[in-house]
Each structure stands twice: as C-alpha cells, then as structure tokens.
Design brief:
single chain, Cathepsin B, Chain A, five-stranded mixed β-sheet, 5 strands, 9% strand, globular, cysteine-type deubiquitinase activity, Papain-like_cys_pep_sf, OTU domain-containing protein, OTU_dom, Peptidase_C85-like
Length: 278
C-alpha cells in the first residue's frame, strides 16, 4: 500500500511531458510574407520583419503572435476606406514607369531578367551581371558573395559612407534629439546587417560594389534621369568597357522597391561570356 501511495505522489509531482506542438502549415506562408517584406526600403518594416522572423524561429508563442498580427493587419486593410483617386494615380504611375523602363531597355538593347523579390534583389541582380561579364564564376555568382563584398568594402572605408548612412540616434532616427553620425558600434552593426541578413540594399551598397569590383553600375529607372550611372572613380571615366546594368522599380512590384538584372537581347549574353573566356 505504501508503495502504491508513493507511486501516486511521484506521478502527481513528476512533470508531464508532451510532444512539441506541430508547426502550423500556415507558418510557411507567413515566413514567405515576412521575407518578402525584407525587400522594403522602409527600415522600420525591415527591422520589424527581421525581428518577427527571429522570434518565430525560437518559439511557438511568437509564431502565434505573428499570425495574429498578420490577421489584424489584413482585417484593417479590408476595412480601410478606398481612395479611388489615389488608386488611379498609383496605377498611372505604375504604367508610366513600366513604359519608360521598357523604352530605355529597347534603346540599350537589353531585356529584363526577373530577380526574386526576397530582400536580396539588388545583390542577386548585380551577381547575375558580374557573371555575365565574366567577373564572377558561376559558383560565386550569388547574393551571398556580393553581400560580403559590399559589407567588407563599406566597413573598410567608413569615411566614404558614414555621411550617407542613417543614424539611429541622430537626425535621421525616430524621435531623434540630436544630429550626428553612426557610432562605431552602429556602423559595425550596419555592415553586419548588409553581410548577414536579407535587408534591402540601396545607393550606399551600389557605390561600394562599383568601387570594389571596379566596374560601372548603370541603373535604369522610370524617373529622370532614366539611367543613373555609378562609376568606380567619381568624376572620372571608367577604365573598362564592361558595364553592369540593372533596373530599379518603385511601382511595378506590389511588395515595394525592387531591382532586376538587364541582360543583352538575342543571345548576346552567351556571346559576351564566350568572348571573355576565349
């Protein structure tokens, strides 16, 4: 009898172990949405999406919280008042951007090569171009390689980039009370973000890559000027006939700003590669 009581007490006091709850199937869709939001140029959207992704990878409560937040956002969007005039304006701007970029591509003899909108679009587009020009081999022609090069160049040339980077506590930061540049810790964190996350890339990273690879990067866009030229040596003509060409889209993609690679038409890309490697 005593043994039986001890067993009952043991069973009551022993922690109940249960298998971990299964990961809901909608998590995959949620993660896709969050990674897509990393492609936004809005740094607040990037930071919030990255934080939720990190939390989701750690525990189920955060996954539930993220799903609830997404449902709330979707509900708010459904009940948001429709602005027909604003919708029409965006539609016109989208059509105009598409027309201008298409005409510019025709003039340059290039065609758009779609890049996935996953936060790495700038780096993937430039990697595709560098591979086309014979600068990067197939095995290294990916966003990881290009991100590392951009981050390392920025980190080793702080004086060239600090004036153009947003400060989290200075005049560019939310609720800022003073002006100023990034601290060394913030600058190191920025470079780490460029290297290791899916954060959107922009002008500072393009400037770093054109100098690191010593090749001009031309950006075709829907506003004036239709082609923005970034050269390795500011104010000096490039010392190479090779040019990286990418397109920048503000309206054509619903998830926000995006970059694509611009390849030569009619199989010229393969001809260029064969000539470079001959």
């Amino acid at each position: 009898m005593a043994g039986s009581k001890r067993n009952k007490i043991k069973n009551i006091l022993s922690p109940v172990t249960s298998p971990p709850p299964p990961v809901p199937p909608e998590d995959d869709e949620l993660m896709d949405d969050l990674f897509a939001q990393l492609d936004s140029k809005d740094q607040n959207v990037q930071a919030e999406s990255a934080a939720v992704i990190n939390e989701m990878q750690q525990d189920s409560k955060s996954r539930h919280k993220a799903r609830q937040a997404r449902k709330a956002a979707a509900l708010a969007e459904q009940h948001a008042p429709s602005d027909a005039e604003a919708d029409a304006r965006i539609e016109r701007e989208t059509a105009e951007e598409k027309r201008v970029i298409s005409e510019t591509c025709d003039e340059l003899g290039v065609q758009m090569h779609e890049i996935p909108p996953d936060g790495h679009c700038l780096y993937s587009a430039i990697a595709d171009q560098l591979n086309l020009l014979g600068i990067l081999p197939d095995a290294a022609a990916n966003y990881t390689t290009v991100r590392h090069v951009a981050a390392d160049y920025i980190f080793t040339h702080p004086d060239d980039f600090l004036p153009f980077l947003p400060s989290t506590t200075g005049e560019d930061g939310t609720g800022a009370t003073d002006s100023g540049l990034m601290s060394p810790q913030q600058f190191e964190g920025y470079c780490k973000t460029v290297r290791d996350t899916g954060a959107w890339g922009g002008e500072p990273e393009i400037m770093a890559l054109t100098r690191a690879y010593r090749v001009p990067i031309h950006v075709v866009q829907g506003t004036k000027p239709n082609v923005v030229e970034h050269n390795p040596n500011e104010g000096a003509p490039p010392d190479s006939a090779l040019v990286v060409r990418i397109s920048y889209h503000r309206r054509m993609y619903g998830l926000g700003e995006h970059y694509n690679s611009l390849r030569p038409k009619h199989g010229i890309a393969n001809t260029i590669k064969s000539l470079l490697h001959s």
